[in-house]
Amino acid sequence: MDRPAPPPLGHDPLSAFFWEGARAGELRIQRCQRCGTYIHLPRPICRNCQSFDLAGEKVSGRATLYTWTQTFKAFHPFYVDRVPFLLATVTLADQPGLQLLTNLVGIDEPDVRIGMELEVQFEDLGEYVIPVFAPVAAVIS
Ligand SMILES: [Zn+2]
């Protein structure tokens, strides 16, 4: 039996750079080209200087763990054989308070610690690629 497709992304021109970056193996975050502020989730205008000159830029891929939860319930057929998995909010190293909702991989839930150092990896779901984060020691390059 074929595996169910992941939930559709939809078509959002504001976040297209994010998904194209993930496909290329880069974590790209929207950045104001006028004042340099990173913005996530992508928006049409800079919240710092009100500029419309925004673009996706590659960031370091380094982060620390802000918080997490373990998910046991599959709310979409795609996730039935993926539960349990770890959902996490990470703070990217590139700007204070710059956070991303992601999956935590390469670690078992009892070993997870707030503030642990993480690094981005990319998981190919077929339809699209998602950035996920693993403990720095678990990153295989
Ligand atoms: Zn700005």
What does this structure look like?
- The protein has two domains: 12-59, no CATH class; 60-141, no CATH class.
- The protein has one helix at 16-23, and strands at residues 28-32, 38-39, 54-58, 62-71, 85-92, 99-104, 117-124, 129-135.
- 6% of the residues lie in helices and 36% in strands.
- The chain has one helix and eight strands.
- Zinc ion is lined by residues 32, 34-35, 37, 46, 48-49, 51.
Shape: globular
Structural class: mainly beta
What small ligands are held by the chains? zinc ion
How are strands sequenced across the largest beta sheet?
A: 6-5-4-7-8
Order of helices and strands: HEEEEEEEE
Residue-averaged pLDDT: 94
Beta-strand residue percentage: 35-45%
Number of helices: 1
Number of E-type strands: 8
Query: How many angstroms separate the termini?
Result: 32 Å
Sheet with most strands:
5 strands, antiparallel
Number of domains: 2
Contiguous runs where pLDDT drops below 50 for at least 5 residues:
none
The percent range for helix content is under 10%
Rg calc: 16 Å
